[in-house]
Amino acid sequence: RKKIGVLTSGGDSPGMNAAVRAVVRMSIARGCDAFAIYEGYDGLVRGGDLIKQLYWDDVRGWLSEGGTLIGTARCAAFRSHEGRLQAAKHLVQSGIDALIVCGGDGSLTGADLFRSEWPSLITELVNNGSLTKDQVEPHKFLTIAGMVGSIDNDMSATDVTIGAYSSLHRICEAVDSIGATAFSHSRAFIVEVMGRHCGWLALTAGISTGADFVFIPERPPVGSAGKTWEDDMCDSIQRRRHRGKRETIIIVAEGAIDAELEPITPGYIKELLVNRLSIDTRVTTLGHTQRGGVPCAFDRILATLQGVEAVEAVLSSTPDTPSPMIGMNENKVTRKALVDAVNQTKAVAEAIGRKDFRRAMELRNTEFEA
Ligand code: ATP
How many CA atoms lie within 13 Å of 14's alpha carbon, on the beta-carbon side? Predict the structure, then answer.
């Protein structure tokens, strides 16, 4: 009987519980045992009570729960060889032969590294007497599948990540509420949203709420003929105000930068509006409200379909197939090589670092075969 472990890692995102539920129930439906590893990679490194078998009824009601009920963590120990050695020992001792990781690009990088090191880790564990040859014999290979749980939607090779639409929905509600008070007082609001180095949340929130301006890392603002972007922004806001628009909403991604890669902060934009246009301006940082709350219907569906696919992927995986990342492309659940997806995601950041913004956008969208 195959034993499939599932863990959530990195920042939590709405829909992770739906993903775990789908993995647990699909594993059972396919005749396997399902294990939850609590507290992300910490659970693997520490073992013991943090690795528990889950049954069908254990995950009842999880579809609509926000956050992750099996916990998540940033685990420094798993970045070290010693930590991964402990993790391998605990996996073998629990009899788990396949691992499904739901997390961001960091978590999936760690998962891929773990799988590539697996043969040498178990050899080391036999050599140092932690495990016997008989114990490791059925665990010569570790099968891994990645599911992307992240509100940032920053992973290449998938159109969407689990949690992004729930977060977007929460941002829209907040901006709508702010819009009402902005209108009442004729104020400007600068709303900072999450997304780290990715502008997806800011951009889609701007489109969804009809914001006046959006600042994202992938497209730093540039001024038109002989003007700075600051001049252009102020001119445009003034024009709209002269036409009778009472409220101004500007959305700034937390990673927004200018063409020189310097951060564009909400405080700086506020100064411009106050000093140049004398507009009563407030800054709102939405913070962790963007992460919390119940997952929207889309994230529940996405996580469920991908959880099913992740179990199918580990069941059909062979030592020669690369670890798959379960994605979504053009409305279809897909499998891509995890290592390629992770590398391409890193290449986006590198392209931005050398001011090649066009390439960064191409890399986000480029398709490749698994
Ligand atoms: P989010 O996008 O929400 O921040 P993430 O998965 O990218 O999620 P990270 O903090 O980068 O979050 O990674 C989560 C955990 O994955 C780390 O704490 C660490 O345990 C593991 N991890 C990340 N990168 C590596 C790596 N290169 N090698 C081994 N483990 C890693």
Answer: 25
Binding residues for Mg(2+): 105
Write out the H or E segment, with its range, that includes residue 297. Answer: helix 297-316
Rounded percentage of the chain residues whose pLDDT exceeds 70: 98
ipTM: 0.92
The Cα 316–Cα 17 span in angstroms is 24
| Catalytic position from the list 12, 97, 152, 154 | 152
Among protein residues, the one whose CA lies closest to atom 18 of ligand 1? 74
pTM value? 0.94
Cβ count within 10 A of residue 81: 11
Confirm if 258 and 218 have CB atoms less than 8 A apart: no
Q: Supply the DSSP symbol for 289.
A: G
Query: Which residue, chain included where needed, has tokens 């063409």?
Result: 259
Inter-helix orientation angle 16-29/297-316, to 10° = 40
195: amino acid identity, one letter: G
Residue 320 designated active-site: no
Pairing of strands 143-148, 188-193: unpaired
Distance CA 259, CA 23 (A): 43
Say how far apart CA 301 and CA 331 lie, in whole Å. Answer: 12
Listed residue (32, 146, 129, 142) closest to 87, CA to CA? 142
